[in-house]
Design a protein that fits this description.
The chain is α/β, with parallel strands linked by helices and about 350 residues long. Helices cover about 45% and strands about 15% of the residues. It contains 13 helices and twelve strands. Strands 1, 2, 3, 4, 5, 6, 7, 8, 11 and 12 form a ten-stranded mixed beta sheet that branches. A two-stranded antiparallel ribbon has the order 9-10. Helix 1 links the parallel strand 1 and strand 2. Helix 8 packs antiparallel against helix 9 and helix 9 packs antiparallel against helix 10.
């Protein structure tokens, strides 16, 4: 079977502490027909030099140095340069199992699918797509995947994981979507391009396997707090809705509301953790946030009681009670997580691991 060239795009910005582990895991893949495109997005630490070192040692590595423009700008630049017929992404603070691409491409070719997906190894658990592993053709995509592709609002959980790093796509299809994206997007930007290709292909495969190790980096854009987080989220979701209109079913656009709910709750939690109560108050009084809470029907029995309570207190604008309840809940969760980890260690010891 002919080896297909895979373009692996890595947007790099100030990750000198993690970058070597990331790049070692890519250049060390058992699948060798790779084009590795490192886009240094104006790093101010030693990341740029590290990129150059790997390009010097491995002819498959290509480095692009550019002024800082954000993740969308870096990924657009990378995919414009890609020459492989298929493409994927890696976040520069994460790393991969050695056989990730060999397994996915072998399955992709064997089952003649256009897109293939896999899962995440998270710090506390593994995360997979919320669908039965297998091959889905056009009919089964319509029937089984699209109704919950982004979010299952009845069960209150996700659908297909909203990251391109766990998937392999046709390059031309993803390029067409990415190059048109607004570079001002700073939150939830992956959502803009991860899902659209699924509506333009004939066959996909969900593997139900995880190869990709996700590092929870508290300094990343996703986890760090700034006062504009919620405004940036609203900008992104407005952009997604406007660009997806007439390209996906209305039911899929409705699923976005539930993702936006979690974006709003995350912004609330970040403001509380940062003790920025002025920003917290602004979030709570935000009319878009309040409309969102009315829309999602948060009283569902499937939603955790913590978020039911938080939602009610936000709607009633009871800021002090919200902060007190959240802090108490966080303490309880820390105790439960500690006990859970102790139990895991005991089980491993009993199993001789």
């Amino acid at each position: 079977m002919q080896e297909t060239k895979l373009s692996v795009i890595v947007a790099v910005y100030n990750v000198e502490n993690y970058l070597k582990q990331c790049l070692d895991s890519i250049v060390g893949q058992s699948y060798k027909n790779l084009e590795i495109i490192l886009v240094d997005d104006g790093s101010t630490d030693h990341s740029a030099q590290i990129c150059d070192e790997y390009a010097y040692k491995d002819s498959r590595v290509k480095v692009i140095h550019k002024d800082n423009g954000g993740a969308v700008s870096a990924k657009k630049r990378g995919i414009k340069e890609a020459t492989g017929s298929i493409v994927t992404f890696v976040d520069s603070d994460d790393w991969l199992d050695t056989d990730m691409y060999e397994y996915l491409i072998t399955e992709m070719q064997k089952n003649r699918v256009d897109i293939i997906t896999s899962g995440f190894h998270m710090p506390e658990y593994d995360l997979y797509d919320f669908f039965t592993p297998g091959v889905y053709d056009e009919e089964s995509l319509q029937r089984n995947i699209f109704p919950n592709i982004i979010y299952n609002k009845e069960e209150w959980h996700g659908g297909i994981i909203g990251s391109a790093c766990t998937k392999i796509y046709p390059t031309n299809l993803l390029r067409e979507i990415l190059v048109q994206m607004d570079e001002a997007l700073r939150q939830w930007e992956d959502t803009c391009y991860v899902y659209l290709p699924f509506f333009q292909v004939k066959r996909i495969q969900i593997t139900g396997k995880a190869f990709y190790h996700y590092r929870q980096n508290d300094n990343s854009v996703t986890h760090s707090f700034n006062k504009e987080n919620w405004e940036q989220c609203k900008y992104s979701f407005h952009y997604i809705e406007s660009t997806w209109k007439n390209r996906v079913p209305e039911s899929v656009l409705n699923q976005l509301r539930y993702v936006q709910y979690w974006a709003y709750m995350t912004a609330i939690e970040q403001a509380i953790n940062a003790k920025d109560y002025g920003t917290l108050e602004a979030y709570i009084w935000d009319p878009d946030g309040q409309k969102l809470l009315q829309y999602v029907g948060y009283r569902s029995s499937k939603l955790a009681s913590k978020y039911k309570k938080m939602t009610l207190l936000i709607q009633e604008k009871k800021i002090q009670q919200l902060v007190a309840m959240y802090i108490l809940t966080q303490r309880e969760e820390k105790v439960r997580n500690y006990l859970r980890n102790v139990k895991r260690k005991i089980i491993k010891l009993q199993n001789g691991e």
